[in-house]
Design goal:
single chain; 178 residues; 5 helices; mainly alpha
Length: 178
């Protein structure tokens, strides 16, 4: 008979900060600052190399991506702070801004890479960018149904209905093994 191990469920501070208010371990909450630092160093070195080679379009593109990333991060933060089942103009504006900024960054990278790739590779990159932009638009505007929202925090109540599968994961894995 296989033994069942019970383990504690751990949530990362990045994924759900309000769930871990009692937990004083905020070591992973510094990760976004390391990402900002990495972005700043990479952007500055790329701008310096582009300046040495007199590549002004690359400088403009890197500056745009740098600031667009911060605006996109601010939009995601504001979007995630809104109630999930609220339909407001602010939420729609944030969705639209997220889609436009993400798509423009993707198209900018495609245009920068298309200058030194073959025609077939450039077209395939543009096809991937168009498909991912359409997928992002579809997910944000058509699949974002507030009725199907499920919170990532274990202590939050999402609705009065119970899920179809209320068994713990270990019991489900036990059934699959048989």
């Amino acid at each position: 008979m296989p033994s069942i191990r019970r383990s504690r469920k751990l949530t990362l501070p990045i994924s759900c900060n309000k769930c871990n208010t009692g937990n004083k371990d905020f070591t992973l909450s510094l990760l976004p600052y390391f990402a900002y630092l990495n972005l700043a160093v990479s952007s500055m070195s790329t701008i310096y190399r582009a300046y040495i080679h007199n590549d002004m379009p690359m400088i403009v593109f890197i500056v745009y991506v740098y600031f667009a990333y911060f605006v996109l991060d601010h939009c995601f933060t504001a979007f995630n702070k809104l109630p999930p089942n609220e339909n407001s103009q602010k939420k729609e504006f944030l969705k639209f801004t997220i889609c436009v900024l993400s798509s423009s960054i993707l198209f900018g990278f495609a245009c920068q890479f298309a200058t030194f790739l073959s025609l077939a590779a450039s077209l395939s990159i543009f096809v991937v960018v168009i498909a991912s932009s359409l997928c992002l638009f579809y997910v944000h505007f058509f699949c974002d149904d507030p009725k199907t929202f499920r919170a990532s925090c274990p202590n939050e109540k999402t609705s009065g209905k119970k899920n179809k599968s209320t068994k713990p994961v270990s019991e489900i894995a036990l059934v699959i093994e048989k």
